[in-house]
Amino acid sequence: MASLADIRARLAAQENKSTGNNYPQSDGAIYPHWKMDEGALASMRFLPDADTGNSFFWIERQVIKLPFNGVKGDINSKQVTVQVPCVEMFGENCPVLAEVRPWYKDETLKEMANKYWKKRSYLFQGFVRQNPIGEDETPANPIRRFVISPQIFTLIKASLMDPEMEELPTDYVRGLDFNIKKTTKGQYADYSTSNWSRKESALTEVEQAAIEANGLFNLADFLPKKPDETAIKVMQEMFEASVDGEAFDADRWGQYFRPAGMQQRTGDPLKASAPAATTPAPTPAPAAPAPVAEAAPAATPAPTAEAAPADGGNAQDILAMIRSRQS
Description:
Blueprint (H helix, E strand, L loop, with lengths): L3 H14 L23 E6 L12 E10 L11 E6 L9 H6 L9 H7 L2 E12 L13 E5 L1 H11 L17 E4 L1 E3 L2 E3 L4 E2 L8 H10 L14 H15 L6 H4 L15 H9 L37 H12 L1
């Protein structure tokens, strides 16, 4: 288990080198603190990662959200969003961010750049010691996982760097609880008043027994799966389709990524052959040519460099405009 000094050193090192800016199915262990009523407080006790190689007691997730104008073939579908992993999370170059990063140099593209920029969250685990949420069902294992937003994580991180904090807050005997407090700022939830408890406390016998019986989670097991070369190409194709304002094509991409709640398309051969089975022809009819999904419509004159692209503008047009300005 890393010491508080180790964590501080790692956090300081990250600050110095910072340059700015298929998921596992839920087992019910995630504690939905965001469902608290305004003014409520949830108290939690964080625990170490089962992976002793992780210096921190959390792990960072990075995802990119791709919005689509509905689902192809479903006239009743509304806008859907597909989350894909940002491969920078695995220490590799992300092709989507490589396209988006230059957009920030153009004032007309910053809003779109923000929409496609990676979103961070932080995964912790521990016990819920004060629960203001009336959950319908709680898991048998009382060790919960917490998806912490950047706003709350900033508070956690700042306190860890405070020299007045003498013990690691995950210490089983002299640790600290963290209190998430929900208020409202404008029309959005605000957690800026969340804080660490000022009083140390030991884990109870029941909590220690739960750790012995269930073990700790290996937090890395709950990161998105690292995409292979094919999945990365699918991500790039989806990104361009999203920027172009297209609908989500489950037949093309559903095997790799899909909106939450959508069943995976497997390319069932029975479904594909159903039309032919209903035609009692003596010889099989020639297969109809498959629609050419990759073919682009006839090109129209590209907008001038001064024209601001619409939110659903063509990705290639945007990239061409950016590159021409850089040259």
